[in-house]
Each structure stands twice: as C-alpha cells, then as structure tokens.
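User: Hello, can you help with two protein structures?

Assistant: Certainly.
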Amino acid sequence: MSCLAQEDYLEKGNTFLDKGQLSKAERAFRDGIKADPTNLIYQCQLGLTLIQQKKFAASEIVLQQVLKNDSNNVAARWYSGIGYFENTQDRKSVNEFLKALPLIDKQSGQYYSANWYIGKCYANLLKTEGLTYAETDQMFASYQEYLRLQPDAEDAATIKAYIEHKKARRPPANVKIWVDL
C-alpha cells in the first residue's frame, strides 16, 4: 500500500470528522485499518470517532489496543482520557491524563488542558467517592498549573475561588478519604 493511499484514509476520515459526519468517519478509519492494520494513527482516530458517537466501550477497546502496542502513544492516552471523562469515569480519566502529561509539550494547549481535566475529574470525585490527601494535593497542583498557564481563562476566577474554598475546608492528613459534598 502506498503512502498516498494511506494518507487518503486519514484525510478522508478527518474531513468527515470535521464535518460531524461521524459514521462516515468511522467507516473511513475502519477501511484504513483494514488496509494497514499496524497504522496506529487510524486506530487513534477511530477511537476518537467512537467517543464522539458515545460508543465508549468500543472506543476503549480500540485505544487500549493502541496502548498495548505503544504505551507512550500520546493520542491514545489523550483520547482515552477524554473518553473516560465524557463517560464520567473520572478515576480512569485522571489516570490517562497523568500518564499523558510527561509526553505532552509543556508549551502546547494540550498541556494546560490535561491539567484542567485532572483538576476537574478530581473535583468531581471529591463530591462523590472522595479523595486521599495525595489526590487532593494533585487536584490543587493541576488546577494551579492550569491557572498559571491560562490566567485569563474564562473559568480562572471560579477555579481560584474553588481552590481557596477547598483548601480552607480541607481536613488534616490523617483523614484517609475526604468527601466534600
């Protein structure tokens, strides 16, 4: 298979994605995978397409297979984190974004976005199943990194107030799990 033919699948699928034609994008990426089963880009894009269609279980299977072949695949980590977030699996989302952070260029929008997702997932968990002291530290650190990189973000004031409020209410380190409804 020539490189030109391989690029056509990617270009075609991404064009469908951009237009919101998700079933056509899914078909293009599946065709690309049939043509070149080792192409991890097609697989990652298929995973993204499945997430956008809310086919979370199918997406997880595709992206976990990519990560089995390449544990440092940034796109698969990123899309997995997004998929878990969209499917309200906050612990799994945090796990993927924490693994992605060292792989992401610190100057990129993905880097500050990953920190936002980590903070947001931990904030969600704080209201439901609770956080350990270390997880609370990570929530604060992630949100603070996001604010450092995006001081003028629309949600910056809200996040700053949230951090201050939670720090004031935080129990001592001997509390194993903190649930703050």
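That covers the first. Now for the second protein you mentioned:
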Amino acid sequence: MKKLSSPWALGMLLLAVLLGAASLGLAKPRPRTLTIGMTYIPNVQFAPWYVAQERGYFREEGLEVKFDYRMDIDALQLVAAGQLDLAVAGGDQVITARAQGIPVSYLLTLYAKFPPAIVAKADSGIKSPRDLIGKRIGLPLYGTNLLAIKAILKKAGVAESQVQLVDVGYTQIPSLTAGKVDAVVGFANNEPVKLRAAGQAVNVIASWDYLNLVGHGLVTGEGQLKRSPELLRKMVRATQKGMRYALDEPDQTFAICLKYLPELGRDQQRIEKQVLYESLKLWENDYTRQHGLGRSDPKAWDESQRLMLELGLIKKTTPVRRLLQQQFLEAR
C-alpha cells in the first residue's frame, strides 16, 4: 500500500473521516423544540426566559424555545396532555389540577414569595386585614387572588360574611381609583407600582406577611417527566441562568425585555421597569437564600394544600413528592 506522506494526502484523509462521522449521525444534533405556555400577554414577569433566549442559554443547551401567549384557562390540561411542553403557572393551580386528576408537576419556582397583596388607598384607613370588615374588596373571583384573600381573612380571624367580595376581573386599578371598591387584591409587583405611578398613595398588605404559600413557577406534565427528563433538566438549567443574570443585571435585563414589548411608550417603559424591579424582589426568600434560587419549600406546599382544603377550594390533597419535582435544579 502506498504511504500517505504528503500534507495534501493527510488532509484528504482527515476530511474523509469527518465526512464519515457526519454521515453516521455524529455531527452536532439539531436543537430540540420546546413550547412554554406563558398564560399571559408578553410581560416583564417572563424576564428569565427572555434573558435565556437572548443571551443564548437555550441555544447552549441545544434547545429551541417557543413562547405561547394564549391566555388559555386550560393551560395545565394542555401540558398534561403533551400539547404544551411546559407552562408558567401558580402553585395553587398545580394543587387544584392534581386534586382533579390532572397529572402536572412543578419544576422551579419563579415567585418564592406568594405575590398577591391587598391594596387600598392610603386615606382609606385600611392597614390590616381586620380593617377590611364591612368593606368591598375587588378581585377576579377565581385563581390565585381568590385563594389569597380567603387565606388572609381566615388567618386574621375575619369571616367572609364580614366583607363583600366583588368580581371586578382584572380591572383592579380603575375599580379602586373610581371608588367602586374599598380595596383590591392584585400582585404586589404590579398594581401598587402602577397606582403610585398614577399619583395614588396606597397601603399594601402583603400576603407573605401572613402566609407561607406557593407562588408561580415552571410546570410540566407527568408524561414529559417520564419521556424527556434530560430536556427538562436543560430547560431548568437555562431558566436558572436567566434568573441569576436578571438579579445581577436588572438594567440589562429590562433592555432585553423591551425587545418583547416594542409597543411600550416612554412613560409605560418607566413603569414597567419598576414592575420588573419589584418582581425581582419576589424571586428570593429565606428558603431560596439557604437552599438555592428556584427552589420551593415543601412545607409551603403542605400549608397551601391544608388551607385550600379548609377553604373548600380542593376536595383532596396530593403527596408533595408528586406535586414538586426539584431534581433538575442545580445545587447552590
């Protein structure tokens, strides 16, 4: 056999080896596509995923991620059925779904502090839950906000019959400013910020001062857990990177968010930037500082289920080990 001694011959041999490897499927694999149900319109609250997209954290993990903004009340059913890969949803929604036999699990916490708060005008005299007796409270009469007001009233020893819950949907701000209600239930990182920006002084009763309940986070289906654990690990890892970057670089993070909110005017940008800063404060609590960003306290799940059962919001509880799947989270 003729000896391959020239550089040209050696180069051709190397090229042949590389082409052969590619033909055997050893080339870099194509990205795997995952779809996240955001269950809301584009918003700064989705900063970790916007950061992960723009800074290449998804790409580094071999993922192509699509954001689905359909405000679908059946998001968790779609996740359980595999029609969505993941969703951003409340811990209370996961508990409710499981109680109804819908197999979904919570992977990572975004809001380590339960975000709902009671908001009232500063001159209303409402500073504590007991000040709500005889008052009208506006909120959407379902979901996380409803759980919050029921739980806070119970904790404070105030019977629901002592207040008037008024269904105002998501019109909390105009309902309060117009005097249609005396207080509203919203998210601590949203309604108070926007009311103050409009010149309205407010009092805020934060739910985390009274309760240890579970906030919003990243959710997937039990089937996805069995089929694609490594994909979920990659998604969780990229999300954690996005969260860490946002906490370290809030100004740069807001600039990234603006790419997804191109319609915002200058005044709206100023308000939304403050909403982002207030949101970042909810991502950490004593538990996450001790155990790691994105981790959720199992005791909070026990307390959430107990309260929801007592309030008649669920008819049965689910073992926390089925509700909460934290094995994909990186250690501190």
